[in-house]
Design goal:
It contains 3 helices and no strands. The chain is mainly α.
Length: 55
């Protein structure tokens, strides 16, 4: 296998292990949700109330 092919395989391996751009990890999504809830607390309560009523 050539040096180029080895380097290309290594790059592919690293990219496969990296998170996909545009698809945040769960912890990042939850952090953003927490930030939005803090910013829009009254609206968040109303939404949660609607969801609870639907159950």
């Amino acid at each position: 296998m050539s040096d180029y092919a080895r380097e290309l395989n290594e790059l592919r391996r690293v990219l496969d292990e990296s998170p996909v751009v545009g698809h945040p990890r769960r912890d990042a999504e939850l952090a953003e949700l927490r930030r939005l809830i803090g910013r829009y607390a009254d609206e968040a309560r109303a939404i949660l109330s609607e969801i609870a009523d639907d159950r």
